[in-house]
Amino acid sequence: MRLRITRLSGLGGGGVCPWYVMTSPMTDGATRDFFEQNSYFGVDKADVVFFEQGTLPCLSMGGDVLMEAQGKVATAPDGNGGIYRALAESGCLADMKKRGVKYVHASSVDNALVLPCDPLFLGCCVESGADCGAKVCPKASAEEAVGVICKAPGGGARVVEYSEIPEDVSAEVDPSTGELVLNAGNICNHFYSIEFLEAAAKLPTPYHIAKKKIAFVNDKGETETPTANNGVKLEQFIFDCFPHSKKFVCGEVLREEEFGPVKNAPGAPTDSPDTAKALLLALGKKYALEAGGLAPPELGGVEVSPLVSYR
C-alpha cells in the first residue's frame, strides 16, 4: 500500500496522500510500534495519523452487562462503523480540512489487492458529484461472506450484511442473466467527501448483534472462559450511513484485480494469506504478459513493484 501511495503521489505531481490508520484500544500500541519499527514504511511520520475507534459494553444473551473484572465492564470495539465518530472526536477530520483534503478513500486492512486512492474510481465519483461511493465485485457464490449493495426503500443505496440475509434469498438467481439477484458484493472500499464524513459522524446508527464467546467474572469474582457463545457484542457497520448519501456511486471491479481478502489463517483453502499472495502474483504475471513480457509455464507468478506500475 505504501508503495502504491508513493507511486500515486509521483503521478500526481508530488501531492501528499496523508494516511489515517484506525486502531482499537486493544491494537493501538502494537500498531504504532509496528509502524515505528518499520520506519513508517518510508512515509513521512507527519503524514501517518493514528486514531482509535470507540468501544461498547458486552452483554449476556439476556441483555445484562457482562463484567470483565469486579468494577470493570467488559467492552469490545464498536465495529468499523465507529470510524465516523472516531474521525470527528479524534480531530482527524479537522486535520484533513487543515491539510486541504476534500475527498477520502477508505478500505479495510485485509484486502491484499486494494488500490489506495484509485484515481479512476475517485475521479469517477468526483466527476459525478458523489458524496459517497463504493466498489463492488460479483459474489463468488451465494454463500460468500460479504454484504451486498442494493437499493434502499425510497431510493438511495444500502448494504445488507451477509449474516442478516436468509439463505434462500441469498441463493435467488435472476433468470435473465443467470447471476445472483443479490450479486453486488461490498468489499469495504469506499469514497467520501469531507462534508459527508462530517455529517456521518452526527448520524444515529443501528447496532448489530454478534454472538460471541466472552470471558466474564461471575458473582463469586471468578473469571469464566466459555467454550460456547454466551453473549453478544454490539457493532456498528461502516455502510449504515449509505442511505443518507445524496449522490451515491457504485463501481463494479474485477475480483481478480481488486479483491484479495485475508480473513482466515495460513493454510485455509480460501481467503488466507496464501490465497491472497497467489492472487497478487497471478495478477502481476497477467500484467507482465499484457506488457509484452515472457513467462515460462513453470513460472508461478510475478510480483510487479507498484513503483513501476501503480496497478
TrEMBL record:
Q: Name one GO molecular function term.
A: UDP-N-acetylglucosamine diphosphorylase activity
Keyword flag Ion transport = no
Q: Which controlled-vocabulary keywords does the entry list?
A: Nucleotidyltransferase, Transferase
InterPro entries, per database record: Nucleotide-diphossugar_trans, UDP-sugar_pyrophosphorylase, UDPGP_fam
Q: What is its EC number?
A: 2.7.7.23
Catalysed conversion reaction: N-acetyl-alpha-D-glucosamine 1-phosphate + UTP + H(+) = UDP-N-acetyl-alpha-D-glucosamine + diphosphate
Is Nucleotidyltransferase given among the entry's keywords? yes
The domain of life is Eukaryota
The pathway where this protein functions is: Nucleotide-sugar biosynthesis; UDP-N-acetyl-alpha-D-glucosamine biosynthesis; UDP-N-acetyl-alpha-D-glucosamine from N-acetyl-alpha-D-glucosamine 1-phosphate: step 1/1
What Pfam families does the database record attribute to this sequence? UDPGP
| GO-annotated biological processes | UDP-N-acetylglucosamine biosynthetic process
User: What PANTHER family does the record tag this protein with?
Assistant: LD24639P, UDP- GLUCOSE PYROPHOSPHORYLASE
Its family? Belongs to the UDPGP type 1 family.
User: What name goes with this protein?
Assistant: UDP-N-acetylglucosamine diphosphorylase
Source organism of the structure:
Hemiselmis andersenii
